[in-house]
Amino acid sequence: LGAVSRRESFRDEGATSTETWVVERFGVAAPTARALVHVAERAGDLPHLTNALRAGDISFDKVRAVADVATPGSDRELLDAARRCSVRQLGDVARSHRPAPDSRTAAKDYESRWLRFSDPFRTITVQLPPETYAETKACIQSRAREIPSDGETGWDQRCSDAFVQTVRPPVPEAGSEAAKGSGGGSARGAGPFVVVHVPLETLQDESSALPGELERDGLLDAETVRRLACDATVAVAVDDDVGHTMFEGRARRWPTASQRREIMRRDRHCRFPSCTNVTFTNVHHVVPWKPGGRTDLDNLALLCEHHHHRVHSRHWTMSGNANSELTFVGPTGRVMTSRPSPLWAAVTGPAATRAASRPKGATVPKG
């Protein structure tokens, strides 16, 4: 993996990094790939730790604990510590080997900041410079102490509530300019834009139990849907008989806002195999619009900036039905396939197909 990273040979197979290549090639999770590559990039300079790992004398987690601070000069010393210490104790050993901070260290700490969202687990992981971390921690904990506890709400839960209060727009005071500017709408003003796909029946009938779908995250119960809709802007889009936003054909070249939301709901991220990029994405015509491609869902797919450029520069070819399966063929001849999110594809399964082909007026057997 270290050699793949140094030579950037992952680019030959369309990946944007060694991590994404490992995810696609070996079928591991992104955090696992990130840890493997991180250690692999240091392993070439740490022969004692690497040989001990290969021989089974120490675990991968122990190598990972000291990889950031290990040098060719401290390699043997840290191996001795790894043999007698637990992984947790090695964390303290690693901290003791960190050099004294200076201006270059501060700059490096700032450049290494990052924040990642994990939609499947609904978690946020962030790494901050030391002073920003201390400030953020103090702010959240201070807010958490102000939240009354009924004896059952734990400290971690109150910290979670304090975090949400910190990022949520404040409620403007009555009579303030901010409140007047809301135009009689939400008292909270211009909040974040969150998309939830909701059956109309759920909004109209309080007894309805039909759930909604939080975009890129999963189902929400009907009560939560109605609570969100109480303080939200509701946009109505007409879906076809299997729940897909209406087709546009060749009448329009650019996808409508409703289609873009449906494409995001279907693909969740870039459709190139193993690419999880969500932020910098474009809607791409599988068959180009000008030569005859339609602006319909089956001919539109989400591609990140990198892979969008790759397809347009002819390094990769792309074909198929975006609603079922897309085929990517690379410059080396390797063939890879991509399918929609399983959550979206469920509505195109056998049950949905039977429903779509059922004659008008036919009854649906219960159960």
Describe the overall structure:
- With 367 residues, this protein is an alpha+beta fold.
- The protein is built from 17 helices and 10 strands.
- 42% of the residues lie in helices and 11% in strands.
- Helix 5 runs parallel beside helix 7 and helix 9 packs across helix 10.
- The strands form 4 sheets. It has a 3-stranded antiparallel beta sheet with strand order 3-4-5. Strands 8-9-10 form a 3-stranded antiparallel beta sheet, with no helix packed on it. A two-stranded antiparallel ribbon has the order 1-2.
Strands, count:
10
SSE run: HHHHHHHHEEHHHEHEEHHEEHEEEHH
| Helix/strand class | alpha+beta
Mind telling me the C-alpha Rg?
26 Å
Distance between the termini: 52 Å
Major beta sheet summary: 3 strands, antiparallel
Set down the secondary structure blueprint.
Elements: H1 2-7, H2 18-26, H3 30-43, H4 47-55, H5 60-66, H6 75-84, H7 87-96, H8 103-111, E1 114-118, E2 123-127, H9 130-146, H10 155-167, H11 177-181, E3 196-197, H12 200-204, E4 212-214, E5 218-220, H13 222-229, H14 257-267, E6 281-285, E7 300-304, H15 305-312, E8 317-321, E9 325-329, E10 335-338, H16 342-345, H17 350-357
Helix pairs in contact: 2-3, 4-6, 5-7, 9-10
How would you summarize what this structure contains?
The chain is an alpha+beta fold and 367 residues long. It contains 17 helices and 10 strands.
Key structural traits:
367 residues; alpha+beta; 3-stranded antiparallel β-sheet; flat
